[in-house]
């Protein structure tokens, strides 16, 4: 159910039960119901008039003073006409009808219909008060125009039963409409929450992709900058080295553009269907760390690897991917802030003990020649978030020996 369906049911609009005057304009269903109520009230009026002409009337229209008969007809006609306004002013009409119906028989059904409207659209105390007031006027009617077929108290009992049935029916209709309104609101709220969950899931997925792209692009662009810097400071290098460096730059630039094309394609996609999603590329694992280090060595970095991981083939994929990203971020930071220093990468751990990842490099003693590689300053923040989500611990900063140390512990279930 959507909000577009609400105009078809104006009595379900918020506040429509408490204030019909604020509801939408009368619908086809409302016109049909109001017409039926009007015809029933007019039918009762005609029945009372026809019964008064019979030799043995069943309805006490002719009882009482002679002037009551034409007055009763006038009141009955007015009550029937007032039914067309009962949705807008139910309480006002019910109060206005009280003195007019003290001696009216022809307006009885119209009064019951107006009372039913009050019960449906107004709080119970208001409806009960008006029902009690109408019961009092009924006592006056039964005194002035007694029913020829039953006693006064029997007539009052039947009147009370009729008023009770009208009250019960109106309360049932009101409760049912409130239930439908509650279910409608609940369905709208559930739909909105579902849309919110979808939007949050999409945002989380985009954030994850952006985080992965940050790690990958920062690594590739820093390598590209390192090779370009070597060409800049060694213009007299052998042609073979220049050609190899140019090939690495071209390959890195191509990879960067491909990564950017994929992430931008995903971030521009608003749909969540399978046809609109870009398939994820194979994610790196712990086994890809040596290849990462060889790539950095090929770019001119001095990197050492100490691998003391027991049964590395059993490392969970998520743990291995996090370890790879930590090493990648540590190497990227070393290229940016400590170019020319030796970087030591250490991996250790086993099932049940967790996986320890450490990237250490000497603190640079002088400024890096040439322009510094720009950074976003969010690399370590992203790594810290990744480690926290994995349930691990992260430490980074200068240690007692003066080295910069990036160390993380990741849980590795036994």
UniProtKB/TrEMBL annotation:
Gene3D superfamilies noted in UniProt: 1.20.5.1930, Histidine kinase-like ATPase, C-terminal domain
SUPFAM superfamilies: ATPase domain of HSP90 chaperone/DNA topoisomerase II/histidine kinase
TM spans (from-to): 31-47, 67-85, 92-118, 124-141, 153-172
Catalysed reactions listed for this entry: ATP + protein L-histidine = ADP + protein N-phospho-L-histidine
A Pfam family that the UniProt record links to this protein: HisKA_3
Domain of life where this protein originates: Bacteria
EC number: 2.7.13.3
Keyword Metal-binding: no
Keywords carried by this UniProt record: ATP-binding, Kinase, Membrane, Nucleotide-binding, Phosphoprotein, Transferase, Transmembrane, Transmembrane helix, Two-component regulatory system
A Gene Ontology cellular-component term: membrane
GO MF: ATP binding; phosphorelay sensor kinase activity; protein dimerization activity
Residue ranges of every copy of the Signal transduction histidine kinase subgroup 3 dimerisation and phosphoacceptor domain listed in the record: 205-270
PANTHER family reported for this sequence: NITRATE/NITRITE SENSOR PROTEIN NARX-RELATED, NITRATE_NITRITE SENSOR PROTEIN NARQ
Protein name: histidine kinase
Species for this entry: Micromonospora eburnea
């Amino acid at each position: 159910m959507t909000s577009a369906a609400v105009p078809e049911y104006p009595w379900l609009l918020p506040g429509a039960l408490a204030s019909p005057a604020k509801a939408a304009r009368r619908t086809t269903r409302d016109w049909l119901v109001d017409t039926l109520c009007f015809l029933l009230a007019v039918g009762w009026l005609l029945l009372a008039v026809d019964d008064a002409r019979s030799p043995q009337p069943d309805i006490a229209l002719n009882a009482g003073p002679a002037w009551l008969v034409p007055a009763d007809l006038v009141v009955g006609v007015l009550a029937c006409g007032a039914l067309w306004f009962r949705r807008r002013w139910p309480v006002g009409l019910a109060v206005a009808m009280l003195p007019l119906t003290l001696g009216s028989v022809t307006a009885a059904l119209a009064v019951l219909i107006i009372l039913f409207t009050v019960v449906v659209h107004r709080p119970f105390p208001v409806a009960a008060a008006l029902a009690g007031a109408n019961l009092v006027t009924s006592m006056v009617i039964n005194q002035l125009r007694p029913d020829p077929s039953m006693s006064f108290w029997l007539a009052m009992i039947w009147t009370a039963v009729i008023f009770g049935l009208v009250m019960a029916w109106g309360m049932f209709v009101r409760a049912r409409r409130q239930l439908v309104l509650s279910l409608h609101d609940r369905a709208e709220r559930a739909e909105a929450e579902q849309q919110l969950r979808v939007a949050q899931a999409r945002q989380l997925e985009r954030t994850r992709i952006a985080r992965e792209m940050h790690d990958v692009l920062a690594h590739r662009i820093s390598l590209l900058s390192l090779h370009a810097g070597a060409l800049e400071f060694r213009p007299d290098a052998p042609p073979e080295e220049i050609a190899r460096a140019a090939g690495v730059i071209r390959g890195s630039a191509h990879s960067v553009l491909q990564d950017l094309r994929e992430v931008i394609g995903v971030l521009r996609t608003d749909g969540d269907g399978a046809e609109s999603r870009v398939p994820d590329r194979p994610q790196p694992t712990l086994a890809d760390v040596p290849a990462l280090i060889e790539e950095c060595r090929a770019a001119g970095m001095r990197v050492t690897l100490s691998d003391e991981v027991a049964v590395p083939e059993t490392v969970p994929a998520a743990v291995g991917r996090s370890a790879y990203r930590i090493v990648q971020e540590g190497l990227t930071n070393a290229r940016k802030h400590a170019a020319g220093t030796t970087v030591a990468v250490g991996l250790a751990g086993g099932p049940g003990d967790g996986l320890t990842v450490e990237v250490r490099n000497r603190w640079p003693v002088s400024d890096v020649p040439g322009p510094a590689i720009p950074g976003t300053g969010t690399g370590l923040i992203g790594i810290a978030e990744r480690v926290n989500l994995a349930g691990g611990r992260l430490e980074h900063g200068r240690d007692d020996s003066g080295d910069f140390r990036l160390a993380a512990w990741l849980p590795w279930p036994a």
